[in-house]
Amino acid sequence: MQELTHFINGEHVKGTSGRFADVMNPATGEVQAKVPLASKEEMDAAVAAAQAAQPAWAAVNPQRRARVLMKFVDLLHRDMDKLAEKLSSEHGKTFPDAKGDIQRGLEVAEYCIAAPQMLKGEYTDAAGPGIDIYSMRQPLGVTAGITPFNFPAMIPMWMFAPAIACGNAFILKPSERDPSVPLMLAELLEEAGLPKGIIQVVNGDKEAVDAILYDPIIQSVGFVGSTPIAEYIYGTGCAQGKRVQCFGGAKNHMIIMPDADLDQAADALVGAGYGAAGERCMAISVAVPVGEETADKLRDKLIPRIEKLKIAPYTAGDDVDYGPVVTAAAKENILRLVQTGVDQGADLVVDGRDFSLQGYEDGFFVGPHLFDKVTKDMDIYKTEIFGPVLSMVRAQSYEEALGLAMDHEYGNGTAIFTRDGDTARDFANRINIGMVGVNVPIPVPLAYHTFGGWKKSAFGDLNQHGPDAFKFYTRTKTVTSRWPSGIKEGGEFHFKQMD
Fold it and tell me: Domain for residue 207, yes or no?
């Protein structure tokens, strides 16, 4: 049985707490490794190493810091298949999807190579007699991130790439369900030239999370996960005086107008609803066709597409549509929610409850489900299922469809499929959701824009990656400088007006 480690001060370090979590193979249901769960003392050691290393790293000019990320990107390309293989084996994603996970993180690292430009301050010459005013963006110091199981490569890179580019040290607490890729990323960063101590990977559970939240040295915390935990981390971290950004749950609606290309919409829904077994915070889980005719036609197009989905382990080839969910508990929760949909009167038109894959009966595979005639009082509508379940909620008008998305407590992502530019423009302007797709089902912005939801999907005033990342991981210092010339005057006891 493989025993994983922490990565502290440039070394793989065995856990000393005596506590471990199982790392499963979701396809077989077997334990493939054990990961140590850190104590507060282990987290303290990582923070101390980061604090000692950070000042020298901050003193390195941004261009040289960016060169480390350039090399890191090269190494990611070199090891792409190796990383994707490990990611798939612990998470269950298909191999192409695992490579996409790494690629979207890599793109943020590429964006952060622009750190010299992004960290430039402002300057005002001669703001007053002999007075210049300028601002500097300076690193926070030691920063931290708590990342989820569903994107074990992408989301850590969304956090540590800008943090490091800005001159900070970074403590990563990855998910204990699939911790190997974060450890591999730390190794690649140091191979790229990052000094020891600037990236630390500390595996753990709530004890490690609380150690981060209450450590006075750690200046900022990023989090992605469920909304209840996001609320806890945001409230606790802010109360400790930290800068905090937290991203929570989602219930993403896709509105299908009567003029939409229904084949395009159906293809988009199948990919966005069932890709990665629905374990994406930007998955489309609610389809809202406008009008009964639209709904009937869409349903007829969805059913054969869903029934043809290939569900298998990633080792079955690149034509696999999705693999298992991450744990047995996740599978049980999905099937429990499906049953509530049936009990509460929704029409289960594709029933995947009896799905079983020969040779992998102990794996955490869940068949695809399609509900029709779902109403907004049902649990399957209100709750983020995080599984391969798509719900159709029929709307009789555009305004009713818009209202469904706007009234839901989550506001991560949404989409509209239409051929009408006026409708699309109105939707984009009025919707109270952070990321909007027009004929794009999963509107995750590229690295040079920011990622973030609204309402109970996000907590904090700055988004992930893009320009916001450089604001989040730095503080602005403003300097007013005067170099008097000529005859010096005596002391001044009031604010002098600028000439």
Answer: yes
